[in-house]
C-alpha cells in the first residue's frame, strides 16, 4: 500500500475539499513550500488514488482536481481520516503523543528500549524525543522521571496526567473523526471499531471501543435533542481514561464508594460508568464519578451571564483599542454562546475545538486579551478557562472584526486629468478592483488643494507628485496598473488598521463577497457557501427534516445565507419563537456553531424560520 506523509495527506484533503481545479502554486502557498515539492507530493498522491481506482484530473492554466462524485468524495474523506491515516509516516509530534499514552498506561517504569520496540523506532530516536517531552511536561508542572535500571515514567498529580491524556486524544481528532465516532454511536454495527491513532493497540483503545458499544446501547432509549456531541465525546474519553488509570492502580481521589441514592441514576454519565466498571470489574468511586460527570458542580454562586458578556467585550475593546462594544450582534451572539455553555449539565475542561491552535497562533494579542478578561470576570469557573474555551469566544470577536472591516471604506480624492472619459474609466476600474475604496471626488492638479480641503478624504491618489499634503498619499500611473492598485490596497489596509502581517487571515474566516473582484465571483462564492451550509444542515438535521420540504429548504438556506451576508436577517416581533428554541437548546447551539464556522452569525429569528421545515418533536 502507498504511504502518505502528513503534507501529502493535507494536500489530498485540500483537493477533496475543493471541487474546482487548484493550481500547484496555490497548493505551494498553502503549504509554504516550493512548487517542485508539491509536484513530488502529487506523484505519491496519484499512486495512492490509483490503488483506489481514482485519478487526478489536470489541465494547463486551470489546475488539478480529483475526479470523483459528491458521495464518493465524502466517503473518501471519511476513509482517509478514519483508516488510511494509519499509513502515515509517524513524525515526532505523533511519537510524543504515543509516548505520553504508553507511559501513562504503564503500572511501572518503562525502559527506552521497550518503548522503541512498541513504537517501531530506534532507541536513539526515543531518547531524542524524551528531550522534547521533558520540556512539554515541565510547562504543565510535570516531570519525566528516570529510575536507574528500571526506566522512565511520568510524574505529576493524577488530575494533570489525565488532562494530558485527554489533550492528546482531543488534539488528534479531526472533523471526520468526530463524524465517524458519532456515526458509530448512532448507527454503528457491533463489529465496527474506531482506531485511536495515538493509542493504537493499547488498553485505552480497547476500553474506548467498549465505551462506544455501551453508549450506543444507552443512547437507543435517550432523547438525543437534549444531548451535545461534545459532551458525548468527553464522556467517552473520561470513562475510558478513568477505567484505564484505575486498572494501572491510579485513582483521581479517595476510595469512597459512590452513594447511588444521592445521585440521579438516570444520568447518562452514571449509566455508562456503571456498565464499563462492571465490564472490567472495577469499583464505583465517588471521585471517579465526579471526574466523569463534570469539571464543575453548581454549588457556588451563579454567574450573571449578561454582565459577564458585557465586561468581556468592554475589557477586550479597551485592551485592543477597537470598538467591539459598539457591535450589538457581538453582544447578542456571545451572550447566547455563554448562556448555552453554562447551562449544560456536563462542563468539561477539554473540549474539541478545531480552531484553537490557529486562533492562538495567528491572533495572540486578541487571544491574550480575552483570556485576561475571562479569568478576571468568571466566578468559580476557573477550571473551564482553557485554550479551547477562549478560542470559541475569540471566534465571535473575529467575526465582529471581519464584518466591521468589510463595511468600512476609505474615502479618497483622485487627482488626474479632467477628462470625463478618463475619470469614468478610472472609477470603473477602481470599483472592480478595490471594493473598500470610495472615490469622494476627482480633481485636477490645479484645484487639488481646494478639493482636498472641501472633501477631507482619508487618502489622496494622484498621477502627479503633490507636496504639502497632510494625509496619506499614493502616486500612480495615468491609467492605474496592477502594481498601482496593489499599493493603494496596502495603504487602505494600513489606514483601516488591517495590515495582513499583523492579522493574517489563515483561519478560513472569509471576508465575504464584498471583497471579491467582480459581481460574478461574488455571486459564485455566495452560491457555493450557501450550498455548503445546506449540505452541512442536511447532515445535522437528517432526523428532523420533513423530506417533502427538502427542495424548499435548499432555496430557503441559499436566501438565508444571502440575508446574513448583507445584514438583512429576519427580526420577529415578540417572543413567540422562544418556546421551541428553548426546548431544543442543543440543536440551536449546533446550528449556530455550523453557521459560525462559515463566518455567518445567524440570529434566533432565522433559526425559528428554519424550524418550519422540521418535524414537531
TrEMBL record:
Residues 410-500 form the PTS EIIB type-2 domain. It comes from the Bacteria. Keywords: Transcription, Transcription regulation. InterPro entries: BglG_antiterminators, HTH_11, PRD, PTS_EIIB_2. Residues 300-407 form the PRD domain. CDD domains: PTS_IIB_bgl_like. Pfam families: HTH_11 (PF08279), PRD (PF00874). This is HTH domain-containing protein. The lineage of its organism: Bacteria, Bacillati, Bacillota, Bacilli, Lactobacillales.
